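Hi W., the histidyl-adenosine monophosphate complex you wanted:
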Amino acid sequence: MLQPIKGTRDLLFDECRKHRHVERVASLVAGRYGFDEIETPILESAGLFLRGLGDTSDIVSKEMYRFTDAGGDDLVLRPEGTAGVARAFISEGLQQHLPLKLFYRGPMFRRERPQKGRYRQFYQFGIELLGVEKPQADLEVLACGYRILKELGVLGSVKLHLNTIGDHESRAAYREKLVQYLSGRKGELSKDSIDRLERNPLRILDSKDPGDIKVVADAPALKDSLTPAAREFFDAVVAGLEVMKIPYEVDPKLVRGLDYYCHTVFEYTTDALGAQNAVLAGGRYDGLIKDLGGPVTPGVGWAFGVDRLAHLLAAVPEKPRAVAIIPVGDGADAAAVEWAEKLRTAGFTVELGYSGNLAKRMKRADKIGAGAALILGPEELARGVVQIKELATGAQREVAFDQVIATVKTFNL
Ligand code: HAM
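Structure:
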């Protein structure tokens, strides 16, 4: 039997409706914050991610769907959206549009071990604010994220963790101290962390390995290596969150898994999804566009997993109840199609019964949760009337053609 590929799934019914609801609310809110939509290709060249995300990141080192196509091009199914937006900024020559505020959504691909809330094809919604080097931009994207979570009604199950990883100078100084400390306790580190010691020691800070956690507990703090400018930047972000009354917790061990970050990094986490606790995550990336060969352009943004937020929704968004059209006898079929179109033009959701006698079609109307049935009998049609039944109460009445729409409107479907 044909099955979907491991880690991918078909989105159906309630689950699909939840995804669309999350995306719709997020797009509307992002629009209110002045973000415009961008859609970049799912296929990008492998080089984009190798240069953009860093070859020691988990994504690049082991999770990319990378292949050579028939023409010999080295391609990747995008694992995230920020690099694609940065690439589009360069390829489309968007400098004259700065500052630029963009949002995007769509499927991303990572070959991770599938589990609840973690898929190989998953969906992200993200925003990127390009061209503003001040902390106001960080606050604007944080505020937009907070507002989306609020409007989705999930603030009660998430928590914002915030940190700074400083500027280049701060990180270089810290890296030296950290490597010195960790080298002294190398014997206690996990194999992964020993591998990272030379190439990407900061990542050891957020290792989940119990041995690593013990070692990291006594590690020097990044905040003690911050330059005055980096400290001032972070203080401004924190002060802004206080002003906006956005709850947060400073988490000195939060470093994020992608190489392009600097200064502010943050993650909204939840306890509701088992091990997959990050729902919305991001930060500042002032060097990314330059590293990809573009002009020096600061950026800050985040992305959330649509799948994960959909899991957190308390209820399935309601869909409008339909009007079921029930022709009685073959002679009424043409009138059924005509009435279906009239009601749809007036904005109602309409279902045609397709086949069967009156009882069978009424049963189907119940099954699909219709709110009303329009019963079209040949004798009534000849008199210019139809029967309308409100399914919640069972009340049925005869209504003249010109009163049908007005009557259905009173049902609050
Ligand atoms: P990320 O932390 O790799 O960041 O992913 C962002 C979010 O995507 C995660 O918090 C999670 O909700 C969701 N996600 C990631 N992997 C999976 C998966 N396998 N299954 C389901 N959901 C997943 C980024 O991608 C950055 N581009 C975010 C960003 C935008 N930074 C700046 N701008």
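Residues 149 and 155 are 6 Å apart (CA to CA).

W.
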